[in-house]
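Board notes (copied after class):
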Amino acid sequence: MSVDEADDVWNPQEQVFHNAVREYVISLLLFMALYGVSFVVITKFRKRSERDDFYQAEDDAWVYRISLWICTFTLAVSVAAVLLLPISIISNEILLIHPKSWYMKWLNSSLIHGLWNHVFLFSNLSLFILMPFAYFFTESEGFMGSKKGIMARVYETFVVLFLLGVLVVGLVWVASALLDQDTASRESLLNFWNFYLPYLYSCISLLGVLLLLVCTPLGFARLFTVIGQLLVKPRFMTNIEEDIYSAKFEEDNLLRKLKDKLSPISLPDKQDLRKRLLEVQAERKKLERRQKASAWQRNLGYPLVMLLLLALTGIAVFIVSIHTLGLLFGGAALPVGVQEIGLGQASLSMFGVLGASVEIVLILYLMVASVVGFYSVPLFSRIRPTKANTPMTMVIANCLVLLTMSSALPVLSRTIGITHFDLLGYFGRFNWLGNFYIVLLYNVVFAVGTGLCLVKKFTVSVRRELYARLRMHSPAIWRRQSRTESMSATVAHTANGMTAAMATSANPTNDNAAAMATGSNSTNENLSNGTVHSIKSD
C-alpha cells in the first residue's frame, strides 16, 4: 500500500476524535446563539437602575453582573430544553428524506444524544448550583466583622450554599430511605452523582410536570384573551375617525378639568377623573392602532388566529384522548427512555413530514400555553416580569421557574402522546414514568382539565346572559315568595298571640283563687284570735 493510500485510510481513533470535536463545536455554536438571545431578553426586562453601573458601588456592580450572566446562562439552557424534541424530530425527518447525503453526515444519533446529555447536565448545574448561588450572592452582605468587599460576599454565599446542599442531600436521603426499603439505597449516601442527583432531578421533574398539568389547560383558555388583546378585532359598520375624534375630545375635556384651578375639585373626584382619563387614553390608542392596521389585519387577522388557536387546542385534546384510550387497551407504550435511537429509520408520525411538523408546532404551543397559564394564576402573577422594571431577585425567580417548566416539557410531550420520540439520556430514567396508573391518571386529568377550561371560557358570555335574565325575571318570583313568607309569619304571629292570650286568661283565675284562699285563711285567723282574746278577757 502506498503512502497516499495509507493517508486516505481513516484511523478509527481519529474518526472518533473528529466526530467529538464536530459535535462540541455544533453544540457550542447553538448555545452561543441561545445565550445571545437570552441576554437580549433579560436586558429588556431587567430594572434600569440595576443596569446602570455608574450609580452603584463597584461591589454591587460586579454582583449584578455575575447574577445577570448566571440568569442568562439558565435562560439559554431553558430554551435549549424546549428545543430538544423539535430538533430531534427535524433531524429524524431530514435523515429519512436524505439518508445518503454527504452534507448531512454531521447530523447523526451521536449529536442528538449529546445534546440531550448536555441539556440534562446544564439543567442540573443551573438548578442546584448556579441559581441558588445567584440568589444568595445578590442578598449577601458579608459576615459580621469581616472586611467588606466582593470576596466577603462570595465567602458568605458559599457557606450558605454548602449548608443548603447538606440540608437537601439529607432530606433526599431520608425520603429515599422511607420510600425505598432497599438497604443499598440507604448505604449509598456518598454515591451522589449516580444516585442522589438523578433522584433529586426526578423529583424536580415531577414537580415541573405537575406544574405543567395545572398551567397548560389554563393557558389554553387564557391564550384566546391574550391574543385578542394583541390583535385588532373586526368591527363592521363603525366610523373609526369619528370614534377617534370623540375619544380625543373627551380626553381634552378631562385634562382641562384636571388642570382648571378656578374650580377646585375634591380628591375623590380627581381620582375618578384620572382613572377615566387613563381609560380614554387606552381606548384612543387602541383606535389609532386599529386605524393604522390594514384591511386584511382588521377583517381577517383576528378570525384566522382564533381559528388556528382553536384548531391547535382541539388537535392536542384529540391526541391526548387517543393516547389515553391506547393506554387503557394496550395500544400505547409507557414513556420510558432508551439508550440507543435509530435516527432516520422511520417517521415518527403516520402522516410523514406533515405530522412531524404538527408535532413540533404542538410542542411549542404547549410551552407557550404553560407559560401564559402560569402567569395568569393569581398566586404566581406577582412574579410576572415587567419591561425595564423587574428586580434581579424576580429575574432569578422567573429563570428558575422557566427552567423547571422547560425541563419537564419533553417528559410532558411524551407522557400525553404528543410525540412518539423516545426520551434520551437521564430524561427517560425517572422512576414514575414506568408507573401505569400515574401516566394514565395524568392523561385523564390533562384531557378533562383542558375540556373544562375551554367550556368555561367559551360559555362565560352565555352564563352571564342567563344570570342576567334570571335576575330580570326573579323579582316577581321573589315578591311572591316574600308574600308567602309574610303571610306565614302573620299566621304564626297570630297563633302565638292567641296562645299567649289564653295563657294570660288562665293565669288570673288561678291568681283569684289563691287570693280567695289567702283571704279565707286570714278571716279564720282573725276569728280565732278574737275568740281567744274574748276568753282571756272573761
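Comment from the instructor: DSSP finds 16 helices and no strands in the chain. Residues 460-537 form the longest helix (78 residues).
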